[in-house]
Amino acid sequence: MTSGSTPGLTRFNTSDESTAQAELHEVCASSAWGSKLLAQRPFASAETLFTASDAAMAELTADDLAEAMAGHPPIGRPKPGDPTSSREQRGMAGASEELKKEMLELNLAYQDRFGHVFLICATGATAEQMLDALRTRIGHTAEEEREIVRTELGKINRIRLTRIVEAP
Question: If DSSP states are collapsed to H, E and C, what string results for the chain?
Fold first, then answer.
């Protein structure tokens, strides 16, 4: 990952508040997370931005996490016309119809059980890996799952923040 200041980080640091806020909302739908990062600008390096992101993620309440998860489509059903969603869920593209059907059924069961979408950092994961994780995680307690979701959101946020800081 990028460690020093980059043109993308400079642009983010110097953009007006509403532009930076919109960019952060694209990374994570939690307004609390975005506000915490916005208040800390400018960042000296990508690493300080990532550290601030991780700290803000650790402080999110259950309601904040729910708000963040609301910005994520279910695995196997990326948002139509959303290149980020499609790119992050690329591992599902070549999945068999049988696997996609099981993923949909388990996604619905997971949503019934926990009240939110199954969230996983899908970047680089195969459809089989995501399905295995879903099979395992559906058996967790709500508390266990909330902390796993927090970790997965943190991974997703770092990937998305890296795209911002590495932009030309």
Answer: CCCCCCHHHHHHHHCCHHHHHHHHHHHCCCHHHHHHHHHHCCCCCHHHHHHHHHHHHHCCCHHHHHHHHCCCCCCCCCCCCCHHHHHHCHHHCCCCHHHHHHHHHHHHHHHHHHCCCCCCCCCCCCHHHHHHHHHHHCCCCHHHHHHHHHHHHHHHHHHHHHHHHCCC
CB 33 within 8 A of CB 57: yes
d(CA 60, CA 48) in angstroms, rounded, equals: 19
- The residue behind tokens 């909302």 is 25
pLDDT the model gives residue 91:
73
For residues 13 and 111, give the distance between their C-alpha atoms in angstroms, rounded to a whole number.
Answer: 37
Structure tokens at 168: 């030309």
Model pTM?
0.88
First to last CA, the chain: 15
Alpha-carbon span 98 to 8, nearest angstrom: 42
CA 51 to CA 164: how far, in whole Å?
15
pLDDT given at position 4 = 66
Confidence of residue 85 (pLDDT cuts 50, 70, 90): low
